[in-house]
Sequence to fold (250 residues):
Amino acid sequence: MNSVIDRVKSAMVGLGTGWVLVLMLFLSIVSLAIMLERAWLYWSLRDDIDELMRDMGRLLRGGDLEGARRRLEGSRSAEAAVVVAGLVEADRGVGAAQEAMEGASALQRIKLEKRLAFLGTLGNNAPFIGLLGTVIGIVAAFDELSKVKLAAAAGSSALAPEAVMARISEALVATAIGILIAIPAVAAYNAFQRVVRGTLANTEALGHLLLAHLKATPLAGEGAPQETSRVERASAPGGVRGKAEESERN
Fold:
């Protein structure tokens, strides 16, 4: 067991904390790229949802479904894209429109939440990566301290504390970088999640506006009297059974 521990310790000391710092630098670059890409996407999808809802309500109350569709297609927001899917299927009934909007909303949610899991994972685990570098640095520092006892020359013992301090400083730098990477990643993840939740809430509000109009305005043929059954036609005065009964009476 001691031989295994010695081998692991030698490997850790040999590798040092350099590879941990390089890994965290790479992760920080990827994290920054994702933050900029997501911020640009959300900025490009922005729109005045209050105005859009007012226009939608006015057009729907006027029965102008085509105008409402054109108004939504002129918006670049994710909310409009979902409600357009419902308008396309509006002629098939309320149920079809609702199903179409639910499917479009699921697709928009995937689009909005893309790559956010990386930010959340990095924010939770970057400190642990830095802690790994810290542990490696501390192990290397104790290894340098063990050499002091084995050193025979005064010059070597004088140089040993400098090496120990260098190892400890590397360890502390790794911890600091891990924390510096985690804080922006967690902040960006929380901010972007709020944007996604707000977008989905606005989508639901617009969708309910369309569904309310469709439920209040039945399609042609809905609510019309059902076709008279064969039994009722046969029993009618001019029906087959009615004629038979009339001939028997005569």
Remarks:
- The CA atoms of residues 237 and 245 lie 9 Å apart.
- The mean pLDDT is 81.
- The chain is about 85% helix and 0% strand.
- Residues 2-216 form one domain.
